[in-house]
């Protein structure tokens, strides 16, 4: 299975803007910028999407692993991503 997403960036790193799209349509030219990534402006950023994917994969894997048992009917996970100069230095599921 191959999943695809696209990113477009226009302008300089700090002053530019971009948008993200996924073939599924769930992201359709979703805007992001320096301020949504490195400051606290409302909007998404690549790290947030990586954390969401990690939490989503974990909860689904836990549901599959426990499918022979009845003790899990709902599962919730929170994932965090730490970066330094554009590199992921830590990706974890905090307790």
Structure description:
- This protein has 95 residues and is an alpha+beta fold.
- The protein has two domains: 1-44, no CATH class; 45-95, no CATH class.
- Helix content is 26%, strand content 28%.
- The protein contains two helices and five strands.
- The protein has a three-stranded antiparallel beta sheet.
- It is elongated.
- The mean pLDDT is 90.
Major pleated sheet: 3 strands, antiparallel
Q: Globular, elongated, flat, extended or rod-shaped: what is the shape?
A: elongated
Oligomer: single chain
Strand content: 25-35%
Q: What gap, in angstroms, lies between the N and C termini?
A: 31 Å
Total domain count: 2
* Total count of strands: 5
SSE string = EEEHHEE
Q: Which structural class do you get from the secondary structure elements?
A: alpha+beta
CA radius of gyration: 16 Å
* Average predicted local confidence, pLDDT: 90
Write a concise synopsis of the structure shown.
With 95 residues, this protein is of the alpha+beta class. It is built from two helices and five strands, in the order βββααββ.
Topology:
Elements: E1 5-10, E2 17-22, E3 30-33, H1 34-38, H2 46-65, E4 80-84, E5 87-92
Antiparallel strand pairs: 1-2, 2-3, 4-5
Key descriptive features of the protein:
95 residues; 3-stranded antiparallel β-sheet; 5 strands; alpha+beta; two-stranded antiparallel sheet
